[in-house]
Structures are given as structure tokens and as C-alpha cells.
Design the sequence.
């Protein structure tokens, strides 16, 4: 932010502009004030003034609940998978805390792919690796 925006170099002129806006709202109404402000913003942008967009819209779900499709997945299977993954992580941590066990446990998994790979390696591998390397 420039120094001019933080420190008003001409507070009297600023007050005149704000008083004009108040008068416009009072005399002409909100719609006219909005139109004038939009025109001023358009002119300022055309003149090269950098203005923040400030565009935000509320999210509105346009699909009524009655028209929404059914959930494509299977809640029961997905819950069992999440539970198995959680139990596998707990078992790995408990195994790693045993003495004389040379097993590297990945405590921080950066994404789901790494988690799935860890589950596959520990579940389906005939020979447990001495160390796990996370790629």
C-alpha cells in the first residue's frame, strides 16, 4: 500500500467526495449511487488505476435435493477400509516401539498414495522390509 493511501494528503477533498456520496444517496437513492460508483470505477480502471476486484459470490446449490443423484460409493465398504487403514497404522506404531526391531515406520504420510502403498507392502509382502522408504 502506498504512503498516499495510508496518509490522506488532502482530507478536505476526501470529505467533499464522501459528503457528495452521502448527498447522492439521500437525494437520488441507492440505485443511482450504485450506478455512479460503477461508472467512476470503470473510468478509474480505464485510466490505469489499480483497484481491488473484491468480487465474491455466495455459493448457491442449484440442484434440488430431490434431483441429486444417489451416492455412487458404498458407505459400509469405505468405512471398513478406513478402519483397516487406521488399525494398520496403530499396529505399525506399536510394532516399531518393540525393542530390537529394525522397522522404519512412516509417521508422516504426505498423501493417500503413500498410505495405500504402505498398506499394500505390509499386508501382501511375504518378506517384511527391514526399512520402509517413502518415495
Sequence:
Amino acid at each position: 500500500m502506498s504512503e498516499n493511501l495510508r496518509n490522506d494528503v488532502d482530507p478536505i477533498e476526501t470529505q467533499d467526495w464522501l459528503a457528495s456520496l452521502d448527498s447522492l444517496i439521500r437525494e437520488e437513492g441507492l440505485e443511482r449511487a450504485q450506478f455512479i460508483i460503477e461508472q467512476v470505477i470503470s473510468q478509474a480502471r480505464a485510466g490505469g488505476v489499480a483497484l481491488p476486484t473484491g468480487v465474491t459470490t455466495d455459493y448457491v446449490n442449484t440442484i434440488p435435493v430431490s434431483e441429486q443423484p444417489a451416492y455412487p460409493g458404498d458407505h459400509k465398504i469405505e468405512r471398513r477400509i478406513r478402519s483397516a487403514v487406521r488399525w494398520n497404522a496403530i499396529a505399525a506404531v506399536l510394532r516399531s516401539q518393540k525393542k530390537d526391531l529394525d522397522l522404519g515406520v512412516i509417521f508422516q504420510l504426505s498423501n493417500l498414495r503413500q498410505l495405500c502403498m504402505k498398506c499394500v507392502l505390509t499386508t501382501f509382502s511375504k518378506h517384511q522390509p527391514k526399512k520402509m522408504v517413502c518415495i
Q: What stands out?
A: Residues 101-109 have pLDDT under 50 and may be disordered. The helical segments are 3-6, 11-28, 30-46, 75-96, 112-124. The chain is about 55% helix and 0% strand.
